[in-house]
Amino acid sequence: MLKVQGSEALYTDLLFVSGCAMAKQPGKPSQRKVKDKWKAKGWYNLIAPEMFNRQAIGETPGEEPGKVMGRITEVTAQDITGDFSKMHIKLHFRVLDVRGNEAHTQFVGHDMTSDYIRRLTRRKRTRMDAVIDITTKDGWTIRMKPMAITDQRIQGSKQRAIRGIMRKVIRDAAARTTVGDLVRTTISGELAKEIAGACKPIHPVSRVEVRKSEVLSVGTTPAPEVVAPAPPPEPGPVEEELPPPPVAAAPEDEVPDPEGVP
User: Does 211 fall in a domain?
Assistant: First the structure.
């Protein structure tokens, strides 16, 4: 009996302790309000550099201008030129200056889509690649990677000669042009046509592309256009207002008789 009573007392004590513990448990914490970070952000218009006529190329969100600086955006040449045949060319721009809600960018390089490169390289063809560091007329240093493809396999001596021609043509073109003109001729394909014409005496090439470029150092850049506020209009001469002429009163002798008697 003592054991039974002791066990009952112990069981009662355990129930009391567990009940107290459950009573002391705090309730579930209330859910915290999550702040929407997107509401605190503003939108900045991305502006292309002078070589692309400072046209708008997109938008980017940011809480403050300092967090927008240094961002790199990618657009296709089709978005800038409107030419559908240039959709495989990707241009890269970095944000360098933020004025108001406009983020002004700088060209930092370009490349081509991988599927476009794969379509050019097929069996029984020879692909020749080169890496060239050039300096433009205005002091920009750019690393360019041209590529030439022939319709058939050619000897190694011809491949070396074609690589040398690609280096010479690109270096000469960069020495006589600015970075803006060089980028435009690269995107339009004029530089590739010049390389293909120079390689024709060695062996005809079916396709030439500058598949990638990267800006290593920046030279002189055109100063940003700052629109000065219009001056206030100059005040013209103040015309003095003349007083109205006095009205002459009729003499009393000439007042007509209301009865019509002279």
Answer: yes
